[in-house]
TrEMBL record:
Any single biological process term in GO: actin filament organization
Gene3D superfamilies per the UniProt record, alphabetical: 2.160.20.70
Source organism of this protein record: Acrasis kona
Origin organism lineage: Eukaryota, Discoba, Heterolobosea, Tetramitia, Eutetramitia
Record Pfam families: CAP_C
Protein name (record): Adenylyl cyclase-associated protein CAP2
Length: 218
């Protein structure tokens, strides 16, 4: 590498002296239309993998894995009407990764349910000992038929959580938008939007920040 830099420095202004000049007929603008190479800007649609950054799908999987605790793994499922997980135990977790346009039903009581990097996923579950977590996802619907103590939402846009009559859930969320909680009403389901905008005021007396929900219903 140092030898290369020394050679460049020695040539100075004559660095391009050894390069061959491009003949007139070799220039792209002078070529026939059938000989021209397509440019990146002409690539459109789903096939433009390198341009759009579309992730490569892995092998679809639904299986119970053991190791650091047991967990049901649902990966790379797409356009599935209903994937049912029925043989569950309270010590088992459910991990749903990189799935799209799919319904997953979890029967019985499990330890926790995690959705990661999913799009248009509906999850129906009975009970969870610890929590339901949704991260890096879009357009998610979660229906809790029994009891779940905590729902964690992180980096997720567009999520609806349907609660049952016995639900008493603590919601923890960050860097997310379009969040709605739906609860049973006397006649119809009540939809409650989760606040996304806040204002923080510095209190000079206490030397602390006081944060409150920004009321947009003026």
């Amino acid at each position: 590498m140092s030898g290369l830099f020394d050679e460049i420095a020695n040539k100075g202004d004559n660095i391009a002296s050894g390069l061959r000049k491009v003949a007139k007929e070799e220039k792209t603008k002078n070529r026939a239309e059938e000989d021209k190479v397509s440019v990146v800007g002409e690539t459109k649609g789903v096939a433009a993998t390198a341009v759009s950054g579309k992730k490569v799908k892995g092998t679809p999987k639904v299986e119970l894995q053991s190791g650091m605790g047991e967990k049901w793994v649902v990966e790379f499922q797409e356009n599935q009407e209903n994937i049912e997980i029925t043989d569950t135990k309270t010590k088992q977790g459910v991990y749903i990764y990189s799935c799209s346009n799919t319904l997953v039903t979890v029967k019985g009581k499990v330890n926790n349910v995690i959705l990661d990097n999913c799009v248009k996923i509906n999850v129906i579950l009975d009970d969870a000992v610890a929590s339901v977590e949704v991260v890096n996802s879009q357009r998610i619907a979660v229906q809790i038929n029994g009891y779940v103590p905590t729902v964690n939402i992180d980096k997720t846009d567009g999520i609806q959580v349907y609660l049952s009559e016995q639900s008493n859930v603590n919601f923890v969320y960050s860097k997310s938008s379009e969040m709605n909680i739906l609860v049973p009403g006397e006649e119809d389901t009540i939809e409650l939007p989760v606040p996304e905008q806040f204002q923080t005021v510095f209190d000079p007396k206490s030397k602390k920040l006081v944060t409150s929900v920004l009321d947009l219903n003026l």
